[in-house]
């Protein structure tokens, strides 16, 4: 959970999970789509009930072989953008690394 408000005065809650890309339960999906297991993990992390409206919830799914789920990529991209904005240095985001589908690339 963020200690300072993330957006619109609401704190960010993120729940991370790492799933095995090659697990028998994922291999059929991951053999045809790069981030299939991570995306599935993010969907499974979504709470059934609504959280308190003072929080923003983001499931953060990654796979053992590298791919990140779409919500994890979006959160990391936003974090990189905020680092650049807060420092005023266009290259500041390069201190972070963000994943594309299946690869780690510089953030800027």
SSE ordering = EHHEHEE
List unreliable stretches of 5+ residues: 100-108
| Whole-number total of structural domains | 1
Helical content band: 25-40%
Major sheet size, sense and barrel closure: 2 strands, parallel
> What shape does the CA trace take?
flat
Distance between the termini: 25 Å
Structural class, judged by helices and strands? alpha+beta
Q: What is the overall number of helices?
A: 3
| β-strand amount | 15-25%
The total strand number stands at 4
Rg measurement, Å: 15 Å
The largest beta-sheet arranges its strands as 1-2
**What oligomeric state best describes the polypeptide chains here?**
single chain
- The pLDDT mean sits at 84
How would you characterize this protein structure?
The chain has a two-stranded parallel sheet with strand order 1-2. It has a two-stranded antiparallel sheet with strand order 3-4. 26% of the residues are buried. With 108 residues, the protein is α+β, with helices and mostly antiparallel strands. It has one domain (11-106). 30% of the residues lie in helices and 24% in strands. Mean pLDDT is 84; it is low at 100-108. The longest helix is centred in the C-terminal third of the chain and has 18 residues, at 70-87. The protein has helices spanning 27-30, 36-45, 70-87; strands at residues 11-19, 55-63, 97-100, 103-106. The radius of gyration is 15 Å and the shape is flat.
């Amino acid at each position: 959970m963020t200690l300072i408000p993330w957006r619109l005065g609401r704190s960010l809650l993120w729940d991370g999970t790492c799933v095995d890309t090659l697990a028998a339960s994922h291999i059929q999906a991951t053999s045809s789509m790069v981030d299939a297991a991570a995306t599935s993990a993010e969907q499974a992390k979504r709470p059934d009930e609504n959280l308190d409206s003072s929080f923003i919830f983001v499931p953060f799914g990654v796979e053992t072989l590298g791919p990140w789920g779409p919500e994890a990529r979006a959160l990391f991209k936003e974090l990189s953008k905020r680092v650049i904005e807060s420092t005023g240095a266009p290259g500041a985001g390069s201190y972070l690394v963000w994943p594309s589908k299946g690869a780690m690339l510089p953030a800027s």
